[in-house]
Amino acid sequence: MALFEIRNLTFTYPGQEKPALTDLSFSLEQGEFLVVCGKSGCGKSTLLRHFKTAMSPYGERKGHILLEGRELDTVSVREQGARIGYVLQSPDNQLVTDKVWHELAFGLENLGYETGTIRLRVAEMASFFGIQTWFEKNVEELSGGQKQLLNLAAVMAMQPDLLVLDEPTSQLDPLAAGDFLATLRKINAELGTTILIIEHRLEEVLAYADRVMVMENGRILALDEPAKLPARTRDNDMFRAMPVPMRIFEALSGEGFSPVTVREGREWLEGWMKNREAAGSSGEETRQDGGYREAASEVVIEARDVWFRYEKKLPDVVRDLNLTVRKGELYCLLGGNGTGKSTTLSLLGRIRKPYRGKLYLKGKELGKYRESELYGAVLGILPQNPQCLFVKDTVEKDLREMSKDEERLRDVIAKTEIGHLMNSHPYDLSGGEQQRAALAKVLLLNPEIILLDEPTKGLDGFYKQKLAEILKGLTKEGRTILMVSHDIEFCAEYGDTCALFFHGGVVTSAPARQFFAGNSFYTTAANRMARKWYPDAVTAKDVIERCRES
Amino acid sequence: MDAFSGYHPLINFTYFTIVIGLSMFYMHPVFLALSLAGSVSYSVYLKGRKTVKVFLIGMLPVCLLTMVMNPLFSHAGATMLFYMRNGNPVTLESIMYGLASGLMLAGVISWFSVFHEVMTSDKFMYLFGKVVPAFSLLLSMTLRFVPRFTAQIKRVAESQQCIGRNVNNGKLYERAAHGLKILSITTTWALENSVETADSMKSRAYGLRGRTNFSIYRFDRRDGALLAFLLGTTGVLLTCMHLRKLKILYFPVFIMNETTTGAVILYILYGILCMLPLILNILEDIKWRSLRSEI
């Protein structure tokens, strides 16, 4: 019998005419790993909240939700609490207590277990997740990835049958996200826990998934195995969010089972190449890449031998940093966590000062700018969490605070496409919308240089593309953008110059294509998949074009 | 690792209640000196040389001040030494009392500084969580909330700085307005985020009847033995004080018990009590050394 069965579920939020979920029917088998994806606002979060009565949103609901054949509403809170676990988006907000051990025990305390049982369960979970080493720490001391693992462990301590996760990795960097998903995979494989997860980093999670549900406008667009997905979604916007091997597969043949991982993609491409050679087409040829401009324009940002540490006794965070960014560029600073990228941004933003070396903006030393001049026409900074920029209760008020100039206001609103959001509270916007509203606020200062810290964090493919279009528009106007990012795919596709940041400094910087073609680990999925044949193909589009050409 | 902190929170708490209580309410000079010696030496053991500096700069002046001030304002006592210019007498008894008060103050302050080090928030929470279960969770959540809130204020302020709207930008009026705005939005932020925290609590079955309190502490035999010792010693001391084996009187005349064998035994007992954490630590150190030499 299926663990969960949803029959004709229709749900409407109060005061809205259009239902958020329309006539959904599907079942969730015991031990299944089901991934849900879709554009933001497609109803996937609303759907996930229906798997537990305590989490269900208010509104009008029709249809049935059955847990092992029983109506979910009739199952006791105690049973639901223990058997259905939720992990939500924000690693921070979910933590209730101040100590790691207390957090692990929290759910079990609520269920009223005595100390002996709790001790055993907590010990089991801590060992399974490898938490022993930070067991007695304050939760404040943990990294984002550790916090999210702790949230997962705290839920798992209650030994649920079903684990529901709502974009659990969106606030994590790629490494921590990979760890998290691998742990989920381990839970699924070793404990047999059923997993229902919303995720937009499909590259990794699809390798683990049994089935994928693609949602659109509150309906199920497709529900199938990952390998059959391209055929079901090819005419949809969501197709762009699919992993690179799938996109290449679909563009080149689209018949049979699609590869999901890079390895499968490479194997498939191998076969495809053989077939084509058998059909007698031309062999390898490397194409000269004429896609980038010669570096001729004026230098806008320059760092010369910059060193920085937070305190005298602490190690250097930025060491011997040299950097030149030219006018009109989209410059991407890539690199792992804790290498000093964000600190570099704060140095350029004059929030912190280097203890050695000089920084120049537009040829003038950073320290010589007056405050009003620097944070106006020269420099605009978008912090990692765009929420920090908002101070008013509607987007409109927030923007009007920056500028009284109606024309400028209209122009910026049009550019960032936030016209429909003017009356919303900034905190009610989705991640991508917040990002754009915050960008609008910065743009109202009319800065020539814009610094962005992880602008693609937590955005789905659709919003990323929108952001890219806006950024490209800004560089065309002659503004210079320096962004710090983990997002290789985004930088490869849209960046002009990419630099690898490591150990406090820039190791190498080159035009985007050249940069990725030269790396072997630190490069895009498309490049890893096709480098054997086309070492300079960096994006999925490149690979497809090259394959078609020859 | 401090050996005394490794004992059960109940032991830690009982111990501090006893020594701080006795130091505060029993102004026997020998006891005061022992108490001060015990607390200062333990605090040096725990926190190193820094304490000595804090003690010399911070505490000593306060104690000296108490010693000097008391005879200037209190004129009780029978033994007059001389008259001040305004005609009030300075008495031997009030000087003695001032001296004792200074010692007492120093002792209690330094006991509290050690208390703070040993009784961490989770120990405190564990003890009082048993009495009022809701309090323990509330305290834990507060301890989590406060650092988050301050960190967010800092983040917002930095972001506002970059658009020229921090508390140090603009005219006085504008600065105040910026500060207020930052505070208000951070409050909104906290409320907004608490929704998700509430969800997380609800989804983990918070609110059911019969919630228990888990802790990582266990009251073992070693704790039992030490508790018995603590209570026994305190019992003996209190009984002897009650039976006037020890006595102290400051006014109208200074009277102290004679140094009999019985009194010396009691002094030693109290000395052991005050030095207890240090003794436990030293015993532990010796044990480690012998363990190591066996390897």
Describe what you observe in this structure.
- The complex is a heterodimer of chains A (550) and B (295).
- Chain A is α/β, with parallel strands linked by helices and 550 residues long.
- Helices cover 37% and strands 22% of the residues of chain A.
- Chain A contains 21 helices and 20 strands.
- In chain A, strands 6-7-8-3-9-10 form a 6-stranded mixed beta sheet.
- In chain A, helix 4 crosses helix 5 and helix 6 runs parallel beside helix 7 (174-191).
- The longest helix of chain A is centred in the first third of the chain and has 18 residues, at 174-191.
- The model of chain A is unreliable at 282-292 (pLDDT under 50).
- Chain B folds into 2 domains: 4-119 and 222-288, no CATH class; 131-203, no CATH class.
- Chain B has a two-stranded antiparallel sheet. A two-stranded antiparallel sheet of chain B has the order 3-4.
- In chain B, a hairpin with a 5-residue loop joins strand 1 and strand 2 (89-91).
- By secondary structure, chain B is mostly helical.
- Chain B is extended, with a radius of gyration of 26 Å.
- Chain B contains 9 helices and 4 strands; from the N terminus they run H-H-H-E-E-H-H-H-H-H-E-E-H.
- The model of chain B has no long low-confidence stretch (mean pLDDT 88).
- Helices cover 73% and strands 4% of the residues of chain B.
- Chain B starts with 8 loop residues before the first helix and ends with a helix.
- Chains A and B meet through helix 2, strand 6, helix 3, helix 4 and helix 5 of A and helix 6 and helix 7 of B.
- Chain A: One of its GO terms (molecular function) is ATP hydrolysis activity.
- Chain A: Keywords: ATP-binding, Cell membrane, Membrane, Nucleotide-binding, Translocase, Transport.
- Chain A: It is found in: Cell membrane.
